[in-house]
Amino acid sequence: MSIFSARAREFLSAGTRTGKLGWTAADGRPLVAPVWFLLDGDDVVFTTGRDTSKGRAIVRDPRLVLCVDLEEPPYGYVQVQGTATVSEDLAQMLPIATALGGRYMGAGQAEAFGRRNAVAGELLVRLRPAKVLAEFNVSD
Fold first, then answer.
1. CB distance 54 to 33 below 8 Å
2. How far apart are CA 27 and CA 60, in angstroms?
3. Which of 34, 40, 47, 54 is nearest to 88 (CA)?
4. Are 54 and 108 in contact (CB under 8 A)?
5. 81 CB contacts (<8 Å, ≥6 apart)?
6. Which of 59, 81, 89, 120 could form a disulfide with 131 if both were Cys (CB 3.0 to 4.6 A apart)?
7. CATH number, span 6-90+122-136
8. What does the pLDDT look like over 42-75, one tens digit per residue?
9. Among candidate residues 51, 129, 121, 117, the one with its CA nearest the CA of residue 85
10. Structural domain boundaries of the chain?
11. What is the pTM assigned to this prediction?
12. What is the tens place of the pLDDT at every residue in 10-31?
């Protein structure tokens, strides 16, 4: 059984909404940044640079939160709390990076974005959900 309701899965997969990824900096500060993401089964997957703030933080402390919201009426959100694993395997990364490019830049640019982003120095991140919170039609 999936941790995601059908409605939450549909919400996360719709259009080009970005996820707002939250993590903890080495000094304890909470940080957040947008990421392109996909669902792969029940995992939320994305790529990031190994040497970025996000990349270093995920390797140090894999506990993450991702919030995806609808920024117009009727408003809504899905929050995914969990633990991440990382891989630098380019063969695993290329199809994900290509699918991300297709989702956010269009099918015509998917392959170019996949090749650009599945390179040495990038991480493939898999966020395994432990808890999912969702609220839809907030303004109704």
1. yes
2. 12
3. 47
4. no
5. 64, 65, 129, 130, 131, 132, 133
6. 81
7. 2.30.110.10
8. 999 999 999 999 999 999 999 999 999 999 999 9
9. 129
10. 6-90+122-136
11. 0.95
12. 999 999 999 999 999 999 999 9
